[in-house]
Amino acid sequence: MNRLQQIRKRINQEGVDALLIFNDHNITYLSGFTGHAATALVLADRAFLLTDYRYFEQARDQCSDFEVVCRDRIKQSLASLINEISLQHEVTSLAFEADHISHGVWQNMQADWPNFECIPASRWVESLRYVKDESEIQSIRLAAHIADQALTELVSQIKPEVTERELAIELEYQMALLGSEAPSFPTIMLAAERSALPHGVPGDRALQNGDLLLVDFGAVINGYHSDMTRTFVLGQADEQQKQIYQTVYDAQQAAMDALQADMSADELFKVAQAVLNKSPYANHQGEGLGHGLGMDLHELPFIGMGPDMPIHQHSVITIEPGIYIPGWGGIRIEDDVVLTNEGLQCLTEFPRRLMEL
């Protein structure tokens, strides 16, 4: 069953006539269209992609299963066009992606639709994206490989007097040279006590011997993201740095060893949490353990940080325990993994053991 058939099955199960899709990634997933300024309307037997002159030709080239409609933005509102198509095809109930449109915009649109009932729909397409097909996994694998290579190139440049910002720029440059479409997100590059900021912004602080350096980054291939974190020590690590690093490493390894198909995300979180709880640094552990990965950096399931969900075979997730001590620093290790028919595969391959640079 292809993706369009799957979402039509959901539409039928929910007892509505059509689904209105606003999210760019959800539209790409169902139609193949990679542009912007588009809305998708999926019915039981027809599917429409609504765009304007800027993307019309691109949409016609990419969307073989959708009828592409070019809207004149000056003469016709989007709401009016949706109403016109819906009336033509006798839509009486319309589900819409409530998570991806503002309340004000939706109220204005709905005012043009007196003839059918509107039903909020949450994560209908995202629930399909949860499990990846082989082409999606391969794209994430390639993105992770680029990140591995870029970090390998960067290691020789991590030395005293270089700043966080300089290293972050260089790492993103190396990924671009290797074919990344963009960074997965603004690179996190934090030294010494600033590494205790889980998502801090690189600054102009120069590195010094003895510093921790936390690096969180990723590449993008075919619109799919990778996401990896490594923590280094400049020079020789002290005993506390070694101890905390080993604790985080053990928590991550325990989760990797325990992961099985359809295991509860909360159960996996508790495996890593149990290791961290036994350490002297239990009160400084980060919340959650990871998240799904794909066209969005953060996708279902959220591990220990949201509604509990099973981790299905062929879903790609991150496993990223961390310990963050204000005024001292933080250590996180993060890898992208997927459960295949042969078991767990780690898509990120840069060494996980503590590296003293």
Structure explained in plain terms:
InterPro entries: Creatin/AminoP/Spt16_N (IPR029149), Creatinase/aminopeptidase-like (IPR036005), Creatinase_N (IPR000587), Pept_M24 (IPR000994), Pept_M24_MAP (IPR001714), Peptidase_M24B (IPR050659). Residues 139-340 form the Peptidase M24 domain. It holds the Pfam family Creatinase_N. It comes from Marinicella sediminis. Residues 3-131 form the Creatinase N-terminal domain. The protein has 357 residues and is of the alpha+beta class. It has two domains: 3-128, Creatine Amidinohydrolase, Chain A, domain 1; 134-356, Creatinase/methionine aminopeptidase superfamily (Creatine Amidinohydrolase). The protein is 34% helix and 24% strand. The protein contains ten helices and 21 strands. The protein has a six-stranded mixed β-sheet with strand order 4-3-2-1-5-6, sandwiched between helices. Strands 7-8-11-21 form a four-stranded mixed β-sheet, covered by helices on one side. Strands 16-19-20 form a three-stranded antiparallel β-sheet. The chain is elongated, with a radius of gyration of 23 Å.
